[in-house]
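=== Discrete structure encoding ===
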Amino acid sequence: QFRHQMNDALVDTHDDYFLVRWLRARKWNMEAAEKMLRASLKTRAMWNVDNIEKWDPPRALQEFLPYGLMGYDNEGSPGGFGITIRKNYKQLMNIISVLVCPFANFDMWGMMHCVTRFEFQKYLVLLLERFMKIAYEQSKKHGWRARQLVVFFDMQDVNLKQYAWRPAAECVISTVKQYEANFPELLKMCYIINAPKLFSVAFNIVKKFLDENTTSKIVIYKSGVDRWQQQLFSHVDRKGFPKAWGGDLVDKLGDPQCKSMMIWGGKLPEELYIDQTNQQSDKDFIETQVPKGDKLKLHFKVNSEEQQKILSWEFRTFDYDIKFGIYSVDEVSGEKRSEVALGTVYSNEMDEIGYISTRPNTTYTVVFDNSASYLRSKKIRYWVDLISEEEEGISELTNQMDHTQLASKE
């Protein structure tokens, strides 16, 4: 019945297990599952997922986001410590696959000065798509249970202070929400070990954005506790797991942490930082003031006879944050939709960049909302436009994003 309702939007790879994921995520409420899935398919179009492998991510993401695929659990699920996977991931498909993340090596502060939040989240989408392809191949041999992922985070010596920085915290929350909305029932089990004392405070905030079924699969162990080993190795083969974390595996150099088999991360070199103040751009930016207690609205109409378009934006505010959102109105039916939920963005600390796919016969309204501020106006520098959704346009957009410059913190 659910397949029949979704038939207009499904493709050959959307098998029964794919549909079950969305039904489970909405507790078998078919109407809610349909709404969730259709919203996700729209988001996939925004990320241009069908062509995402053609994107060349920034060096900072490829070389400094810590991860490693090390093996499979006993049901064939890719297990892991990590957030990242090498570009030659296809070669690993039949060799290694347990995801490992030495999280202390993740320089969030540096990363947010080398890439935009949009690029960061797009890269995670790229990685999750790769992981799912690996899991799908495993499921051909081991059944549907292999379609889920096992993840392992080591929080030893993690500096949580960098996540008190607003752009970092905003990026984390936004990423969690993107994951929950677009990758339901993907997680099989998540182990977080060596959690520092303040981690519980941070996690209590993050889990507000996680489904209760997701949180039930996350187990957390404080520093100095090794009880996790018994649970982990009840379904993960020690032979394929790094010796530094209780397994038997060492790399070709004899390293028990297997650094040569993963992206180890580390502090990002400042030469990768990008200074936005010196940016040369061919975009026609506009500077203006959004008065206190007021909104700036920009309207873009997509006609039926036009080729497919994407609505793209890049903006920065000076000194203060602002609320940003996009809604659409169908010219035929009159239906109003939220395309980008209105919310606070800290565009005074880094550029806000993104795009969405559009539909014909629809008017899109971009909103910069300062209505909640009764004391000050907000100065903003922005570029918003409809551009071609053809592959040349997408390539041009991603190339521009590759060269987007971020302001360093004073």
Observations:
- The first helix runs from residue 2 to 6.
- Residues 81-97, 276-280, 390-410 have pLDDT under 50 and may be disordered.
- The chain has twelve helices and 14 strands.
- The longest strand covers residues 378-388.
